[in-house]
């Protein structure tokens, strides 16, 4: 099995369910009023339902509906709620049928309110076109009439500009990490919901080519390395928001443990035989916030090197220490970390990603793996996906295919994760041949 297939198996497994408190399901902030017309309105063979790619029109292959319906895991998201695992999760949580629960539908369907569903809309279509591209009520009939109707006009009518990294990140992260309404709680995961896994560039590319079929042509603008950093920053920010919202006991005397790193507690004891490095700012056995994206970004910032690297180091230490402090210290640490992320974002946005810089990042990831800094599967996954992004940028991913496959195969099972073996395969990927 190739690393791409191994990663694809995570996509279906890492769709997040939600907290229902104050929930308006399935609705992005910029898409709060548009009617969703349904995927059937895009399915004509003259629009996006061709059986094969036609002439590329404004980055469209005109077979996107066919690709989505036959190959894209998002089209199966609703059907996932009907399987035995979802039924058991709902039973353990004391819920009704999973496919009828708002807490499940929010990320397993385009769950807009009934008043905003067009005549051809079907909830069981799963994550359809408009869940990502925005409600099509005002732009559906005219978005293909270029140059008479410009793309700018369609965007003004509600079409979402997914070619912009920050918009793409916000759209994906809403379910794959969480937002102010959608959050994979500790209770959900205890009931059997899979732990979330996401890295923007890796998942964007796996989604773009699901089943070996292109959903859209490769973007010649943003490099994979740039999108990787943008994704790490955006994911880290989203995690900080979740910590702020759920990590202070706001809804009760105890914070929701879903914002902590799973392996702070659920740690196979045999892993402690080697130990590795303790997380920044914590002692062995201490709870720590989920910070997998931050840990990888920290190593990248130091390797490039970015001037904000030391600020990020201090912020991460303060953030983890605040997990055992009071709410005031947490607020200060959150602000400090957000400021450091902004500085990293600004300093990395103009980089040209030279060969020397990419090699420096690879060396940093390998060294960190050897020191045991990616001490749990969540951090190891982020480091591994970033490693492949950089190797692809150097055009070394194909010659390292066997090592990549072994690395990702080891990451399939959290309980079988072994830091020494992970460091071994990361080291093999770092060897320049």
Query: Main beta sheet, described?
Result: none
Beta-strand percentage range: under 5%
Seen as an oligomer or otherwise, the chain set is: single chain
- Can you count the beta strands? 0
**Helical coverage, percent range:** 40-55%
Number of domains: 2
Q: Architecture of the largest domain in CATH?
A: Orthogonal Bundle
The assigned structural class equals mainly alpha
Shape: globular
What separation lies between the terminal Cα atoms?
24 Å
What count of helical segments does DSSP give?
18
Mean pLDDT: 86
What is the fold named in CATH at topology level of the largest domain?
A: Flavocytochrome C3, Chain A, domain 2
Q: Could you name the ranges where pLDDT drops below 50 across 5 or more consecutive residues?
A: 8-30, 269-278
- Rg (CA only): 22 Å
At the first level of CATH, the class of the largest domain is Mainly Alpha
**SSE string, helices as H and strands as E:** HHHHHHHHHHHHHHHHHH
Written description of the protein model:
This protein has 433 residues and is an all-alpha fold. It is 47% helix and 0% strand. It is built from 18 helices and no strands. It has helices spanning 3-13, 64-71, 77-80, 84-92, 102-108, 129-133, 151-156, 165-176, 186-190, 200-208, 224-246, 292-303, 309-322, 327-348, 355-370, 377-393, 401-410, 419-430. The protein folds into two domains: 3-212, Flavocytochrome C3, Chain A, domain 2, CATH 1.10.1130; 224-430, no CATH class. Helix 1 (3-13) packs across helix 10 (200-208).
């Amino acid at each position: 099995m190739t690393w791409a297939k191994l990663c694809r198996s995570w996509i279906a497994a890492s769709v997040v369910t939600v907290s229902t408190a104050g929930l308006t399901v399935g609705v992005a902030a910029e898409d709060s009023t548009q009617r969703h017309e349904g995927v059937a309105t895009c399915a004509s063979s003259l629009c996006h339902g061709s059986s094969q790619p036609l002439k590329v029109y404004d980055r469209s292959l005109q077979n996107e509906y066919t690709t989505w319906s036959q190959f894209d895991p998002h089209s199966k998201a609703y059907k996932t709620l009907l399987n035995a695992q979802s039924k058991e999760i709902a039973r353990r949580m004391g819920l009704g049928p999973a496919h009828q629960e708002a807490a499940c539908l929010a990320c397993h369907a385009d769950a807009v309110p009934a008043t905003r569903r067009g005549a051809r809309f079907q909830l069981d279509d799963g994550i359809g076109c408009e869940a990502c591209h925005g409600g099509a009520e005002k732009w559906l009939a005219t978005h293909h009439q270029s140059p008479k109707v410009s793309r700018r006009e369609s965007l003004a009518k509600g079409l979402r500009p997914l070619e912009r990294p920050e918009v793409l990140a916000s759209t994906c992260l809403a379910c794959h990490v969480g937002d102010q309404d959608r959050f994979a709680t500790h209770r959900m995961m205890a009931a059997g919901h899979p732990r979330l896994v996401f890295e923007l560039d890796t998942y964007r590319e796996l989604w773009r080519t699901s089943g070996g079929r292109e959903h859209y042509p490769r973007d010649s603008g943003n490099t994979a390395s740039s999108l990787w950093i943008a994704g790490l920053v955006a994911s880290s920010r989203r995690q900080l928001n979740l910590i702020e919202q759920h990590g202070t006991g706001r809804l009760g005397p105890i914070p929701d443990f879903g914002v902590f790193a799973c392996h702070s507690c659920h740690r196979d004891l045999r892993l402690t035989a080697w130990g590795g490095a303790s997380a920044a700012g914590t002692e062995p056995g201490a709870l720590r916030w989920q910070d997998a994206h931050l840990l990888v970004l920290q190593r990248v910032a130091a390797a490039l090197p970015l001037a904000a690297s030391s600020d990020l180091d201090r912020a991460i230490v303060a953030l983890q220490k605040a997990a055992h402090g009071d709410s005031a210290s947490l607020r200060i640490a959150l602000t400090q970390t957000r400021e450091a992320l902004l500085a990293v974002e600004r300093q990395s946005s103009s980089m040209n990603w030279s060969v020397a810089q990419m090699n420096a990042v690879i060396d940093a990831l390998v060294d960190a793996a050897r020191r045991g800094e990616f001490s749990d599967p969540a951090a190891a996954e982020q480091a591994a996906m970033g490693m492949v992004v950089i190797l692809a940028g150097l055009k070394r991913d194909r010659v390292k295919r066997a090592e990549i496959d072994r690395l990702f195969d080891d990451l399939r099972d959290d309980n079988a994760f072994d830091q020494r073996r992970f460091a071994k395969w990361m080291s093999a990927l770092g060897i320049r041949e």
